[in-house]
Amino acid sequence: MKIHNVEQGSEAWFQLRLGVPSASRFKDLLTPTGKPSASSEKYMHELLAEKMSGKRFDSFDTFHMKRGRELEPEAANVFSFQTDLICREVGFVTNDSQTVGCSPDRLIFDSGLEIKCPMHTTHVKYLIDYHKDGEMPAEYYAQVQGTMWLMDLEDYWFMSYHPDLPNLIMNVKRDDKYIASLSAAIDKLLEELETNLTLIGRI
Q: How far apart are CA 39 and CA 187, in angstroms?
């Protein structure tokens, strides 16, 4: 594992992520139930385009995405206050060969923290679902498990934060069965990337 001390969102951070499968997109490889995702081929094409062009292709940035980034430091402070856990910022984390990576929102000693700051209706849905079944939002399961896999962690914290509503803070345990399937899906993706780069003649 390598920790790259760059500021998230900086040009250096984007360069490290260029053409590299990252945990925030692992849901495009594997569903929360462990089945192959229908969007895996499209994700491979995105990464291939980045590797071939040497640049990133900007995606649509919504109001709620911008708001989430602005609220993240506030959410991290609330998390530390409520849990008595000290968290620190981190840049980009990769495996030793730098072929796969993740960007934890915060590191906490031998764990980490994923922060989401969704719109009020989504946050309320997360609260209801958590109090009904005790599970984290399914759409982030691959991201959290993938980060635990890359960083060799046994658990991870998840937080959904809205400044006007009760917080959702939960600890997620490592799911080795799911991680084995995710690791296989990533190996397949990396192999396809190399095969197609050779096929196109840009390797």
A: 16
Q: Which of 149, 143, 83 is nearest to 114 (CA)?
A: 143
| 113: helix, strand or coil | strand
Q: Is 60 exceeded by the pLDDT of residue 129?
A: yes
Give the three-class secondary structure for 98.
Answer: coil
| 3 state SS of 178 | helix
Q: Model confidence at 114, in pLDDT bands (50, 70, 90)?
A: very high
Is residue 59 predicted with pLDDT exceeding 70? no
Domain, as residue range, for 114:
2-200
- Residue 131 phi/psi, 5° resolution? -75, -20
CA distance 104 to 115: 9
CATH number at residue 59: 3.90.320.10
**Hey, is 119 helix, strand or coil?**
coil
Give the count of domains, the chain: 1
Q: How far apart are CA 169 and CA 175, in angstroms?
A: 19
Residues 129, 131, 137, CA angle at the centre, nearest 5°?
Answer: 35
Question: Is 35 a residue whose pLDDT tops 80?
Answer: yes
The model carries a pTM of 0.93
Q: What is the pLDDT of residue 56?
A: 86
Q: How many CB atoms lie within 10 A of CB 145?
A: 26
